[in-house]
Design a protein that fits this description.
Layout lengths: L8 E4 L5 H12 L3 E6 L2 H11 L3 E5 L5 H14 L3 E6 L14 H20 L5 E10 L12 H19 L1 H4 L1 E8 L5 H7 L3 H8 L8 H12 L10 E4 L7
Helix pairs in contact: 1-9, 4-5
The structure holds NADP nicotinamide-adenine-dinucleotide phosphate.
């Protein structure tokens, strides 16, 4: 049976690790061709090797507009279009009030807000009719974390941007939604919280555990596919109830 993303062309920023990598695997299993991006070329090569021949790796930093131009030029040359865009690349280098540094604030805003905005804007000429644009937010958009306050604010800004973008879904002919994961077992989270990640999840997530990236990928597949053909402007929290606790 053909997969639900058969013949679809997907671009996944930050597709070399964690949630983005799991989404790439899931989409390929449903028949998609995927372009994955990241800044580190070794990680990029490893991800492409792991995902297989349906994957193409493009080195691109989403906060550098020339990199995004080069990314979409490559997608245009090799595939001619984008059916599914997953703006996933994000960073959580952060602190709480009193401990912020200019470098952390600049990096978080440059990658999470500016990078996501231009990832979507620069894709516009390539988006097909009925394309699905998926912005990866965070449960911290609705339940901010005091040690991740600029990150939380940056994800709330994405909620706001998607709200606006979705208003013109009819003229623009694409759907755009947020997928907002809760704490998920990825290198980013484990790097930030370390061995305390499981205890943190037990104490704060109603389902009592971290998400596996593959569970977030299932929610991404729903929003990317025609099963969500009447869903635009939504924020889907795949968060084990974290925002309800
Ligand atoms: P991860 O394992 O660290 O993966 C991040 C990916 O993004 C990597 O492929 C990384 O590759 C890439 N990346 C980072 N900065 C980039 C940039 N400037 N340009 C292009 N690519 C960049 O992180 P993750 O936990 O899967 O996070 C993925 C997304 O989910 C993020 O938007 C994050 O905020 C969101 N999220 C995560 C959690 C969680 O608990 N893990 C919860 C809610 C939301 P390079 O480093 O090689 O560039």
């Amino acid at each position: 049976m053909p997969g639900v993303l058969q013949e679809k062309v997907a671009v996944i920023t930050g597709g070399t690790s964690g949630i983005g990598l799991a989404v790439a695997h899931r989409f390929v299993r449903e028949g998609a061709r995927v372009f994955v991006t990241g800044r580190d070329t070794d990680r990029l090569e490893a991800a492409v090797w792991e995902i297989g021949p349906a994957a193409t790796g493009v080195r691109a930093d989403v906060s550098v507009l020339a990199d995004l131009d080069a990314l979409y030029e490559r997608v245009r040359e090799e595939a001619g279009r984008v059916d599914v865009l997953v703006a996933n690349a994000g960073v959580a280098a952060d602190a709480s009030l009193g401990a912020h540094t200019e470098a952390n604030v600049d990096l978080t805003l440059a990658v999470n807000i500016k990078g996501t905005l231009f990832t979507v804007q620069k894709a516009l000429p390539l988006l097909t009719e009925n394309a699905s644009v998926l912005v990866i937010g965070s449960s911290n958009s609705a339940r901010p974390n005091e040690n991740l306050e600029v990150y939380s604010a940056s994800k709330a800004a994405l909620t706001n941007l998607v709200h606006n973008w979705a208003r013109r879904s009819r003229e623009r002919r694409f759907r755009v939604n947020l997928l907002s994961p809760g704490p998920t077992r990825t290198p980013a989270l484990l790097g930030a919280v370390g061995a305390g990640a499981d205890r943190f999840a037990e104490a704060t997530v109603p389902l009592g555990r971290l998400a596996d990236p593959a569970e977030i990928a299932e929610a991404a597949l729903f929003l990317a596919s025609d099963a969500a053909s009447f869903v635009t402007g939504a924020e889907l929290f795949a968060d084990g109830g974290y925002t309800r606790a």
